[in-house]
Write a structure and sequence with these properties.
The structure is a homodimer. Chain A is mostly helical. Chain A has nine helices and no strands.
Chain lengths: ~190, ~190
């Protein structure tokens, strides 16, 4: 439980196709036979690669947020200046969102289809990601460049980012990097001391 | 098409029960027989009240946003000061979100189950609501109390509010009014001239 599927060209392709199908027709609306047809594999071969349909859902729902956590930790470790750190976190987050629209659609719509403890694990990843931003706000407050930012405000800011997966595809005019800078400006203008 | 179901105690009850069932088990996961059982009506009587299952979905997905539009228009008409207007819009929005969690869950998750033109109509309501906030930001800019706020920024702010339906229930410690004031402070600190 809680392990990622191994990343091979085959499982990566199955995950990508499944994510798009689940996003389009719902997790319960896509059968294993349909998924097998879409990736050109029989039932047995498909199960060999994915374990179970729920393993696949768990993998789709958790992979992008695990990536966000890893990237955010690395940014925070390398970026002592809190303001610059928010700028980098913001761009990284927007880029990851823009690259994982179907995974995020599936995660937000189907998280209740995950059995425990997987449902809780995915929620805990989201909380872990939030805690990274909170720590940057705390650092900024200590250094007197930010005002005090409550957990609730941090959650509000992250909601602003995450919500964008709902429309990002349709308004493709702005690059994810540029959006990240625009969002960072909103956050920074709200928290600067 | 596009008409609201008549509001009677019976249809209000059916809508409420259906909204909670759809939010819990998905629109396609709830059959008319199950819904009939839940409200104590046979198939014929149920259809008499709701028209069709999709009429009910459309009603659930559109009613809260129509309410938001009506309330926002009234606030804007009565509140000449742009800053006060944002405060009032913010509180009104948060209160409406907190009172319509299951309707919003259904709307955001199931909007693609609506056939045209209903799908487009619901999207257009969301855009109409956004335009009301945009007009307040423009008014504030004209009066030199706000900086220029782009449409994208306005969309970002509203995303911050709307996203809260995902967690509002679980963090019930804060009142919707108080949350509305906290969110308004974020918006105002980001846009004040």
């Amino acid at each position: 439980m809680g392990d990622k599927l191994k990343s091979t060209p085959q499982t990566d392709n199955i995950r990508k196709v499944a994510s798009e199908l689940f996003a389009l027709n719902g997790y319960n609306g896509v059968g294993v036979a349909e998924l097998g047809n879409a990736v050109g594999l029989g039932r047995g071969a498909l199960y060999h690669h994915i374990g179970s349909k729920e393993d696949l859902l768990y993998d789709i729902a958790s992979r992008y947020i695990i990536h966000m956590i890893e990237e955010a930790k690395s940014i925070v470790a390398d970026t002592p200046d809190p303001e610059e750190c928010i700028n980098k976190l913001s761009e990284s987050l927007m880029v990851t969102i823009s690259k994982n629209l179907s995974d995020m659609t599936v995660c937000f719509r189907e998280i209740n289809s995950l059995s425990e403890p997987r449902h809780k694990i995915v929620s805990s990843y989201h909380l872990e990601y939030q805690r990274i931003w909170e720590a940057v706000f705390e650092r900024g407050e200590k250094e007197k460049v930010f005002r005090e930012v409550t957990r609730l405000e941090c959650k509000a800011f992250l909601g602003m980012y995450f919500y964008s997966f709902l429309w990002l595809r349709r308004d493709g005019k702005q690059s994810a990097h540029k959006l990240g800078r625009i969002y960072a400006n909103i956050v920074l203008s709200a928290v600067k001391a």
